[in-house]
Amino acid sequence: MKEVSHKRHIAKAITWRCIGTLDTIFLSWFITGDPYVGLQIGLAEVLTKMLLYYLHERVWIRINLGKHTISQWRHILKTISWRVVGTLDTMLLAWVISGNPVVGLKVGMVEVVTKMLLYYLHERAWYKIDYGIKNRTTNGNILAENNLSPQEFAVSQQHRLSLKGHKPLLVWFSGLSGSGKSTLANMVEKKLYEKKIHTYLLDGDNVRTGLNKDLGFTSEDRSENIRRIAEVARLFIDSGTVVIAAFITPLKTDRETIKEIVGENNFVGVFVNASLEECERRDVKGLYKKARSGEIKNFTGVDAPYEEPVDFDITIDTAACGTEEAVAQILNIVERRIVSRK
User: Fold this and answer.
1) Does residue 223 come out as left (phi exceeding 0), alpha (psi in the -120 to 50 range) or beta?
2) Of 6-10, 212-216, 270-274, 280-284, which gets the smallest average pLDDT?
3) What is the C-alpha to C-alpha distance for residues 90 and 143, in angstroms, rounded to an integer?
4) Which of 281, 277, 299 minimizes the C-alpha distance to 290?
5) Does the model's pTM come out above 0.70?
6) Is 240 annotated as a binding residue?
């Protein structure tokens, strides 16, 4: 999880204020024809804008939309929200200083276009700067620190996609133990296979007996388990394969890590929503009974939390939706995302 410091927000506020103030000064000068009025408006907005921009940054760090993949949509939405706040502030200041509401309106309207572009570029530039971000590792950091040089291969992902005839995707099933994740994942893969789609299914117990057999069930080991699986899924995606994964994945931070690794555009989340009571009633593997008796520690739903996904693409309510209907819902979205090219 990335931690963004107050120093980063302050530094961003300062750099943007320099750019924004210069823009306002020149626009006000151009519209009023008086450089002194432009200077007054520009200087007056420094204090108000610094405070407003800082608060805007603090609000946005709490908004998860597009945050963990740093999507282009996040930058666009931040640009729009700040522009609304900033333009209203400029219009009011220009009105008060010039004594003419028409001047305030003109300055505010004209700066919308210039500031939207400048703010967007400012956001993109700051994403490439690590200052004030803790525990942020990028491919560039890893490569530089370990003297690694990725090999360029003759066969690219595009070549593989052309051969397979469909786009790759990660379909991630999350839910309590016994919710029916593996059953649905298995059926979805079977249906895709019948349609000549190249797939591979990753399941919790299977992975833990091989790739991740060295991991236990502490919170750290669980997160590492998910991270490794996401990295494996990323490799399968590069091969052009539709990956189907069925893991409890109880924590929001781990689910965000998955999206960050594989890319949000390559991710479809399926929340298999079965109540704890129903899962415990089924108890196919007898795990809940062992957890209740204390034989198993840190068992999700009993003595470890499950944070329900609120941002997944599909929610399957197992109490109201039959298996065939659930599979049909999942396939409807998956097939639209992989877009067959045959």
Assistant:
1) alpha
2) 6-10
3) 45
4) 299
5) no
6) no
Cα separation of 242 and 234, whole Å? 10
Q: Which whole-number Å values give the CA distances from 306 to 65, 174, 179, 215, 254, in the listed order?
A: 21, 10, 13, 20, 12
How far apart, in whole angstroms, are the C-alpha atoms of residue 321 and residue 230? 28
| 190 vs 70: CA distance, rounded Å | 34
On whether 239 is known to bind a ligand per the annotation, the reply is no
Does residue 252 have a known ligand-binding role? no
- 179 is annotated as contributing to ligand binding: yes
301 is known to lie in a ligand binding site = no
Distance CA 120, CA 79 (A): 6
Residue 133 has pLDDT above 50, yes or no: yes
Angle between helices 35-60 and 6-32 (to 10 degrees): 150
* Long-range contacts, 116-125 (Cβ 8 Å, 24+): 116/79, 116/80, 116/83, 118/19, 118/20, 118/23, 119/16, 119/20, 119/78, 119/79, 119/82, 119/83, 120/75, 120/76, 120/79, 122/12, 122/15, 122/16, 122/19, 123/75, 123/78, 123/79, 124/75
10 Cβ contact partners less than 8 Å away, ≥ 6 residues apart: 54
Is 177 a known ligand-binding residue? Answer: yes
> What is 157-338's CATH superfamily?
P-loop containing nucleotide triphosphate hydrolases (3.40.50.300)
Q: Is 180 annotated as a binding residue?
A: yes
| Coil vs helix vs strand at 331 | helix
Q: Is there a binding annotation on residue 211?
A: no
DSSP assignment of 6-20: HHHHHHHHHHHHHHH
Spell out the domain ranges in the chain: 3-134, 157-338
Lowest-pLDDT range, 47-51, 70-74, 156-160, 171-175?
70-74
